[in-house]
Amino acid sequence: MKYDLERARLAVEYLISTQYFPQRVKGLRHAVRKPRALPYSGEAEPLNELLVIGRQNEQAMENLISVAQYKRGAQSRGEYQRRFMKQQRDRWAKAVQLEERLFGKKLSLDERNILTREVQATWMEERDAYIEMRAAQQKIQFGTDASFEDRHMFIDQFWDRKDKELDAMLNESPAQSHHIRRKKRTVVVKENNKDGAMQQAFKKLIDRPK
Questions:
Q1: How far is 87 from 164, CA to CA, in rounded Å?
Q2: Are 66 and 83 in a shared domain?
Q3: Structural domain tally of the chain?
């Protein structure tokens, strides 16, 4: 079997570190059955070497995927939690910064706590909706239900999008500042034409000179 050992090592390292592990594995298993296709580029380019291996011996490719999966599972859960909480604190700080810039004043501790709770509740709703949307897309594309790992990947994707959204809002000019809180809906009840005519007639009656 012919392949580049160093590129295979880089491919495994990429699979260990990428937040898109389930998506990449599915892509590899699909592409390996297409002769000569080498679809990966950029940071994911070493994955092409796994396809070179897989087209000669598909089980060898699966073995390398299993190595990456094992090493991913061996990562400290505590380390992941610490990193996630730091990222959340950074997001909350950006939300406070946006709110302060919008209103031109520093928020008190109580105001920051209220804002954080409101924003977090909104983000959780958006996250859940995003997960369900991506799961539905996967069902259509691959015909399979989203696994635990798939949903974990969708969560990472959502927060990555949220970080980019917050950074973009912070880079806008103050005049373009947006509310970070959920917008409240305003319900406008249209006046019934008949009732409006009656009110006008009644007003004329009571305003009539005595």
A1: 13
A2: no
A3: 2
Which residues are within 8 A (CB) of 17 and not within 5 positions of it... i.e. 6 or more apart? none
Q: What is the largest CA-CA distance in the chain?
A: 109
- What residue has token string 């209103």? 103
Q: Are residues 69 and 81 in the same domain?
A: no
Averaged confidence pLDDT in the chain: 82
User: In angstroms, rounded to a whole number, what is the distance separating the alpha carbons of residues 23 and 44?
Assistant: 12
Residue 136 shares a structural domain with residue 67: no
pLDDT: is 112 or 80 the higher one?
112
Question: Is the distance from CB of 21 to CB of 149 less than 8 angstroms?
Answer: yes
DSSP-based helix, strand, coil % in the chain, nearest 5: 75, 0, 25
Do 12 and 101 reside in the same domain of the chain?
A: no
At 200 the pLDDT is: 56
CB 98 within 8 A of CB 177: yes
What pLDDT does residue 182 have?
57
Same domain assignment for residues 111 and 69: no
The answer to the question of residue 108 being in a domain is yes
Domain housing 105: 77-176
pTM score of the predicted model = 0.53
Look at residues 23, 57, 73 and tell me which one is the last residue of a structural domain.
73
Q: What are the pLDDT digits (tens) for 153-168?
A: 888 889 999 999 999 9
Q: For residue 93, what pLDDT is reported?
A: 94
